[in-house]
Predict the 3D structure of the following.
Amino acid sequence: MLVLCFAVLTPLLFAAVMYATRPSPEITAAEARLHSLVATKAKVNGANTTQLPLEEKAPGTFFWLEQRLEGTEVLRRCQLLLLRSRSKWSAGELIVATVSLAWGVPLLVYLATGNVLLAIAGFAAGFVPTAWLQWKKQKRVRAFDAALPQSLEMFSRSLRAGHSIPVAIGILAEEAPLALRHDFVELHHDQNYGLPLREAFLAMLERIPSRDLHIFVTGVLIQKDTGGNLPDVMDRIVAVIRDRVRIQGEVRIHTAQGRLTGWILCLLPVILLLVINVMSPGYSRILLHDESGRKLLYAGVVLLAMGAITIHQIIRGIEV
């Protein structure tokens, strides 16, 4: 009973502490302004710009945890994931949420079922925040890649009209599609702060892990160093990106059968188990109440997970 009360009261106490220690809107706005000014000064003074995007977010509730983890790879990866997914969380909040789920869910499962194996499986809940942020990042990158060819054509037309590269970037910051306008606004601001073109583009690549954007940045930087007709280079890059998108669509069409097969093989046993139990109540009771039945059930779940992961990796390994 004591352990159960502790398990129930700990999340409530944690939520109460987070609510009581949250910064006021005035403090949050002041801290954001201060960090923006510090980051701007660092950019003007020629600081390491690949780290700048990770330092512009105002301190969160668990800033003390971030200070203790400062300089570690864990904090760096959390900050990078939050930056690329455009999440309002702080790195400390992400770490605390991950640890809380990875610790709290197994404890609650064990107290509810008394099963050690199910409690161990509950540790997977700790990956939920990271998986959600990864999904947001991938969704953002896909939207960025879909709008990039149109923006590069606009960039090429600006150069043909006689504009310089910084002016063309400013036009993109005003006229680009919404999916990537904010990123070019940040790039334009970096240049206005006096950041060199190479460092500004590298900081943009830090924020957007897009292969198509990497091709564009490489073409611009090479042309800047060696010279050449940049509008023609942009036209060829746009053609390459569009061809790659077309081929990716064809690959998805040809792998649709494999993906559908994977979904069917993974969901069919679960659906059949539910249907059989509806038609014949108590049919699978032995799987839940008998020791050998539970072992077979766990083995089936593990094998289904292994099969799903294998099919996913086979299809994912086809890249363009």
Q: What stands out?
A: The longest helix spans residues 128-160.
